[in-house]
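so i finally got all the pieces together for this one. its two components total, 1082 residues if u count the protein bits. some of the lines might not be protein, just check the labels. i wanna see the whole assembly predicted at once instead of chain by chain like last time, that was a mess tbh
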Amino acid sequence: MAAPVLRSGFPGRRWALAWIDDCSRLRSGSQIGPISNWARRQSSVAQPSLHTAQKPRKGEHKWAAVVGLEIHAQISSNSKLFSGAQVCFAAPPNSLVSYFDASLPGTLPVLNRRCVEAAVMAGLALNCHINKKSLFDRKHYFYSDLPAGYQITQQRLPIATNGHLTYSIYLGKKHSQVTTKTVRIKQIQLEQDSGKSLHDDLRSQTLIDLNRAGIGLLEVVLEPDLCCGEEAALAVRELQLILQALGASQANMAEGQLRVDANISVHHPGEALGVRTEVKNLNSLRFLAKAIDYEIQRQITELENGGEILNETRSFDYKRGCTMPMRDKEGKQDYRFMPEPNLPPLVLYDDTSVPPDADPQQVISIDRLRDMLPELPSATRERLVQQYGMLPEHSFALLNEVGLLEFFQNVIKETRAEPKKVTNWVLNTFLCYLKHQNLAVSESPVTPSALAELLDLLDSKAISSSAAKQVFEELWRGEGKTAAQIVSEQQLELIQDEEALEELCQATIEGHPQVVMDVKKRNPKAINKLVGLVRKASLSRADPALIKEILEKKLSL
Amino acid sequence: MLGRTLREVSSALKQGHITPTELCKKCLSLIKKTKYLNAYITVSEEVALKQAEESEKRYKQGQSLGDLDGIPVAVKDNFSTSGIETTCASNMLKGYLPPYNATVVQRLLDQGALLMGKTNLDEFAMGSGSTDGVFGPVKNPWTYSKQYRERSRQDAQEDSHWLITGGSSGGSAAAVAAFTCFAALGSDTGGSTRNPAAHCGTVGFKPSYGLVSRHGLIPLVNSMDVPGIFTRCVDDTAIVLGVLAGHDPKDSTTVNDPVKPTTLPSVPDVSGLCIGIPKEYLVPELSSEIRSLWSQAADLFEAEGARVIEVCLPHTCYSIVCYHVLCTSEVASNMARFDGLQYGHRSAVDMSSTEALYAATRQEGFNDVVKGRILSGNFFLLKENYENYFVKAQKVRRLIVNDFVNVFGSGVDVLLTPTTLTQAVPYLEFIKEDNRTRSAQDDIFTQAVNMAGLPAVNVPVALSSQGLPIGLQLIGRAFCDQQLLTVAKWFEKQVQFPVIQLQDLMDDGSLVPENGKLTSGSLTQ
């Protein structure tokens, strides 16, 4: 019978480097610590032990929350899942709509090869079983931005099943302990996105934009293995990094390329699961964590007050920080699933099963895609730890910003400075400046080479680290001067002449007899004070370690 | 000239005996003259004349595009035609101008065919009479034939006793039968091409599912729909099929394999073939005339040296009810897009909410047959019913497919069956039963073929005692369309089906008998 017919739709770009990750946008302040900022920030809002923190009253058990997620990721592809219409964010309304997307009668779906490849790669990266044969179904409901009256999805036999996602969570007061956790993945399915409805309440009309209608989505269904907002947010963050690494999705939540629905229930451990609610359309990690934790607390409070939980859909009101029941006029929907008759089963091959006479354009080999998998975030982190002796939390921080790892690696390539020093400069100084001005790595005025040159000067002890900070600030102004130029213009070189330094030390000793007395009395702070005085006299151009050495010799300590 | 076959007129065009414009004008004039048949919903006169003009230029420059260049054709009004109204005979799509051509339409136009117009049908092709469209019923041209007038009872000749064409592609069948075009496209989901072909005395061919693109055909049942071909002889069908068949990147259910040319041998041979006669098709409701013709036809094959055997398709009796479940389920789904928002009818009545708008639009836009099928289909797809109805029907469909697989696997080459239970009936008779009952009766011999995706063809065989056409159906192996048509060509040659004698057309010389086919055939009652 008929073979599946695939269109080619290659991705706009494989790496989403130019996009600014929404969660980094949301972060503010310049308090950049050595660990994952995301986790740190979350800790202030997520209250991870919220539910367990409930002190059990007499005769009561603790509550446990059960959280499952459904994640929709827009596939990064030039064209839509079943039509040749272009995919582009923020194009003029209804400018990217094919006859099929508008559901003109007689039009038929044609599967986009690129979307299938993205789904297989995501399945492989998430340790799923890839189904060699998967099916498409119609899911029916009437909505103004769903022109066909049904969505094509994979309800019966999805492309990938039974995987798992490993993510890390931070424990301890300072979040310095990293523990890995695993959430099972039930399935990954290919489906169509809907259009957008814009309700104009004033004129009581609805405007429909079909640019989004028919864009390929990966629906990733997580088993309910999560227990709080923080876990959910961290798991989604890891998934986001994986999809970005694969080039499967730009996964930018602010642009709606990654959308999360959460299923939440609470129960007493050892007892049956509670009735669950679904919180829909969570479009930032912060709101995801907040909404889940709010909903857990709401359900506990409701149940403890003798109320009951309704199986309902709720939305998160981010202004008020709470979840609200969604108006659902139709009540319970029956989606009347039916096989999509216009698409033959999607058949995938491996190296052993590719038919010899097959048209290569019509064959997708799982083995070939496996060979093409890029390094995944977990492996990258491991490599960073191995290769540079980096702390695990530093490796997380480097991957947490789009483009930061690449920046780091470029600095490493060009500098003689120790990786540890580079890590510190990139994660503290550099990232701190970016955050302060709310810039993406790609928007940085300081290039990797400029930073590398600066670190070389520091490494060769040509300048002090405080002078280096000064130089960095100059570099950040982006006036086109090199680090060496700035150092020489501002006379920031360390005094290399040891005799001159000795004279400076002698003069300071003579000028501050009281401090010298304190030093001799073994006051531990005094020697540092003396070092500071010498440095001041040198206009910060002396190496403190060397000064200390000379002073100690002179005072015969 | 109009009475000729496509192949004959094509060679007349090539030899310059007639120009495309002359031919086009003759057809347009005949369309006007036979307006009372209600075969056409839209006559695309300007488009056709323009196309004829271009065709004429090509002929003058010796750059004819092939056999179809300059040939007037008609297309059922459920195929999308760019810029030409496509209504599906429904209020829902009145005024709808598709922005694109269905692949089959495009392929005809690419070969230089002239599009005369869009033909009438049952609303959204749901029916077996071509009586349930918003533009009124199609009248069978045989009602007005000399043969029928002479042989039928006096009271049957009153104007109110006109005959139906069968359906749902009755407009296309009537258009070909009344010589207003040389080929027409129909669609065939449960018999919608073969049934009216049988009642109107034309060849009606349903290709293998997957051989011809459905892109642009407004669907009834996606998993069974195929574009059908009406012509006045089997060779003409082969010419049209040759143009239409083949992979279409816009229809993922079309096969990738390269299609072989569909030229039929000039002297077809059926000796050595095995012809199966399915015993389940011998039902009590079958008219004795058709039964007798069926048996005579089997004898013809046997006399030619074919092996004729009785075969068993044991699940045939479950077919029609299974078809009903699958058909209505897909209908419910396919009709969901007609909500008045993007295109087509939009109710002006109630704008208080989107839901109210949907309800009013669909209430006004669809007839009761469509609404009834949407309701039953949605019922079958409900979560609580899905396993018991839809899944079960799919399983039965598999059994029916296997019936055919087994028969063809046992060495049978072609099945010979009736196409319809009876000859065409008068409209007044037909509407005594509702659409659902009629469809169940009329699709009895045809819809199982759609469930199995097989090729099948109605070959007009003889006139009944009342002077009305009777057709028999040949069913072939999947994708053995050429073999099927070869057998059909041989059969057609044996039976010598008489040409319709339309009195008013004979009178003005439009139709001069040219090939002696007006003599009675060899299979007469």
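The first helix of chain B runs from residue 6 to 14.
Residues 512-522 of chain B have pLDDT under 50 and may be disordered.
anyway lmk what u think
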